[in-house]
Structures are given as structure tokens and as C-alpha cells.
Specification:
Number of helices: 15
Largest sheet: 2 strands, antiparallel
Protein name: DUF5009 domain-containing protein
Structural class: mainly alpha
Mean pLDDT: 92
Organism: Dyadobacter beijingensis
Shape: globular
Keywords: Membrane, Transmembrane, Transmembrane helix
Number of strands: 2
Strand order of the largest sheet: 1-2
Strand content: under 5%
């Protein structure tokens, strides 16, 4: 998961860090870690505040169509996996690793990501929760295909193949949904966790991408029930699905393209123009698909339009961090993010599994109402800020001791 930059396009030179990529990854992980602030509780305590309502919106996932800042966490993380791949491959080649050995590392990484995702989703269950819509499992399912594509394009050095594969993935995924029949008059809505008159349901052709009445939902009703479960799987409450790993692979492919350009860019001006132009094209395609009703922008089922839209956002964010951190050489100002970004798997594990433990420890040692110093309305903000500080100090200590979790 670590990202490297070689001095020139050769497999024989030792790699260096790309600070802007680490900063971007750190920003993404910080957004995930910042969930401990629980801004929704502050917004509820101050319902007349547009400021807290705005922050609450951007720390929450939109119900179905659209995008918030929080919705960009998973696509950014997936995008950066693709960005890292050319450097990871160059690093392994510089160590004279054979192709079979590279494939061994790839398959091992894929399996670890899948199993780690299942483990984290099973932490509060009575038995293993076999679910595959988690960020880590989604990346793990598509990673071997990404590596194969990266390896093939490293040999022929042509972007046309990558763009062609991306197009096939997105068109094929859209066709799968479009060909799945819409609910009829006798459809049993109780098996979907939603209703026919849900306010976020789409109409017309776009209805093929409604919550839990689509092709991916039907696949999971078969696939997830192949595993032992406490009760038969009927629907995912958020509308998420296993098959989203296919368009998520599309997001990683966009990252692979960005990583190849970043690694071989003749100049920073060339790279920034290429990134901006690509982002503009992706935005235009996504908005055309969305507003014509052909394909809505929905993150929860990772529609092709979402792949394009979030990919455009990722290109712009990478451009911004590259310009400020690397071109303008402001690394010191972003050190706090670089600390997080260089150990993203550790940050992910800490954010996913230790927040509640740290919160409870504060209550034990500081008192049950230690976080009410500014009133009950800001209690989650106070405790969350302290938890964030502890998380960052742990990562800072690991950074100083050069303890990095690699997969």
C-alpha cells in the first residue's frame, strides 16, 4: 500500500516517497478517523446552525443520489491503490523479483485485504459476517486484475489498453443493471428494506439503479446465502453490494493511469494539465449520463457514472496535493497528513477498531462527563478531538520508530 517515486523510468534505481500522494492518502484517512467527532450529534443539538448542518452533511453519506465529501473517502482510497501500483512494481523489479514472485505477493495481498475486511465487519457479530462490500474486500477482489493490467501495460506502454478495459468494465456493468427487470405490480417490497414510494427512488430508465431492486442486489441474495449466516440474507440496509468491486476496479484503473503519468511525467506543468483535462472529461461524461437519465451518480452501488465522477474528483485532489506539496515544496505544512498517509493500513485499523476503546478509556480515567466541559451539545466534539489526537500520536510514534504495516 506504500507509494514510491523512481528518479527515472528504470527498474534498477531505488525508490523514493511521493510526498503529495502520502499527503492525499493521509487526508483521506483523516476524514475516516474524524468520524469519531460525531458531527451529526452537534448538528442535532444546534438545529438552527447552518454551519454544523453543512459539516454534518459532509461527514455523512448521501441517502442515494449525489455526493458529499464523506462519499469520496472510499473512491479516493481505491484510486490511490492504483496510483501506487506502478511504483510498487518498479520497487519489486529493482529487487530482481521474478514475475511468479510478484504474482505471489499480489494474490497474498488480495487475500489479506479480503479477510481483513471480513474480520473488521465481524468484530461485533456472534459469528463470521461474510460480507464483501467493505472498502478492503472490494479492493482485494479487484486487485489481481489491476496487477495483471498494470503488468501488461508496463510491457507495451500504451494507455489505450487501459482506457479500453475501463470502458468495457463500465459499459458491461451498466448493461447488467439495465437488463435486469424492474419491479412489477406484484413485487414484494418487504424483501428490499425499502418501499415503492421511497423518496429517493428514481423513475424511468434510471429506476434500474434503485436501492435493493437491482441486479447486484439479486446477485447477493444468491451469493451471500452460500455462506453460513445467522439468518438468510435478504438485503443490505445501505444498498451496498458485492458486485460493486467491478466498477471499484474501474476507479483503481483510473488511479493506475494517474500513477503511470505521475511516474513518467516530463514536467510538473505537463502532469497538471493532463490531470486537469482528464478530470474535466470524466466530470462531463458523468454529468451527461446522470442528467440524461441513462446512469445516475450513486456511490452506494458504484454506478459507472459514479466511477467517472469520483474519478474526476480524485484527479483534482491529487493535482492539488501534487501542486502544493511537491511543486511548491510545502511538505512541512502537510507533515501531519504525511504521518497518517505513510501508514494507511494502520490508520484504517485504528480508525475502524479503536475509537470506541479510546472513548471508553477516557470515561474511565477522566470521568463520565469529562467531555461536557463546553456543554452537552459539544460533548462528542470534545471527546472526538481527544480521540483523534491519541490516534495521531500513535501513528506519529510508529512513523518515528519506522513501524509500517505493509500488506
Amino acid at each position: 500500500m506504500l507509494t514510491y517515486l523512481t528518479l527515472k523510468d528504470t527498474a534498477t534505481l531505488p525508490p523514493q516517497r511521493v510526498s503529495s500522494v502520502d499527503a492525499y492518502r493521509g487526508f483521506v484517512m483523516f476524514l475516516m478517523m474524524a468520524e469519531v467527532l460525531r458531527l451529526s450529534r452537534v448538528a442535532e443539538a444546534y438545529p438552527d446552525s447552518a454551519f454544523w448542518a453543512f459539516l454534518d452533511f459532509h461527514q455523512s453519506h448521501v441517502p442515494w443520489v449525489g455526493c458529499s465529501l464523506h462519499d469520496l473517502i472510499q473512491p479516493s482510497f481505491s484510486f490511490l491503490v492504483g496510483v501506487a501500483l506502478p511504483y510498487s512494481m518498479a520497487s519489486r523489479a529493482s529487487k530482481n523479483q521474478t514475475v511468479p514472485m510478484m504474482w505471489f505477493h499480489t494474490i497474498r495481498r488480495s487475500l489479506i485485504l479480503i479477510l481483513l475486511g471480513i474480520f473488521l465487519r465481524s468484530m461485533h457479530s456472534e459469528q463470521t459476517n461474510f460480507t464483501f462490500e467493505d472498502t478492503l474486500t472490494q479492493i482485494g477482489l479487484g486487485y489481481p486484475i489491476l496487477f495483471a493490467l498494470g503488468f501488461a501495460t508496463e510491457k507495451i506502454r500504451r494507455d489505450a489498453l487501459i482506457w479500453g478495459v475501463l470502458a468495457v468494465i463500465l459499459v458491461g456493468y451498466a448493461a447488467l443493471f439495465a437488463l435486469y427487470p424492474l419491479p412489477g405490480p406484484d413485487f414484494d417490497w418487504s424483501q428490499t428494506g425499502t418501499t415503492a414510494d421511497w423518496e429517493h427512488n428514481l423513475t424511468g430508465f434510471a429506476a434500474h439503479w434503485n436501492k435493493n431492486t437491482n441486479a447486484a442486489w439479486a446477485f447477493d441474495r444468491w451469493f451471500l446465502n452460500l455462506f453460513p449466516r445467522e439468518k438468510p440474507f435478504e438485503f443490505n440496509g445501505g444498498g451496498y453490494s458485492t458486485l460493486s468491486f467491478i466498477p471499484t476496479l474501474g476507479t483503481m484503473i483510473l488511479g493506475l493511469i494517474a500513477g503511470k503519468w505521475l511516474k513518467s511525467a516530463p514536467s510538473s506543468e505537463w502532469l497538471l494539465k493532463r490531470f486537469a483535462m482528464t478530470a474535466g472529461i470524466l466530470f462531463a461524461l458523468a454529468l451527461i449520463l446522470h442528467f440524461t437519465g441513462l446512469n445516475p451518480i450513486v456511490k452506494r452501488i458504484w454506478t459507472p457514472a459514479w466511477t467517472l465522477f469520483s474519478g474526476g474528483c480524485a484527479f483534482l485532489l491529487l493535482s492539488a496535493f501534487y501542486f502544493v506539496v511537491d511543486v511548491k515544496d510545502r511538505k512541512s505544512s502537510f507533515f501531519w497528513l504525511i504521518v497518517i498517509g505513510t501508514n494507511s493500513i494502520a490508520a484504517y485499523l485504528i480508525a475502524d477498531g479503536f475509537g470506541s476503546f479510546i472513548r471508553q478509556s477516557f470515561k474511565i480515567h477522566l470521568g463520565q462527563r469529562y467531555d461536557a466541559v463546553f456543554g452537552d451539545g459539544y460533548a462528542s466534539l470534545v471527546s472526538g478531538a481527544l480521540i483523534l489526537l491519541v490516534m495521531w500520536l500513535i501513528l506519529r510514534w510508529m512513523y518515528k520508530k519506522k513501524i509500517f504495516i505493509k500488506i
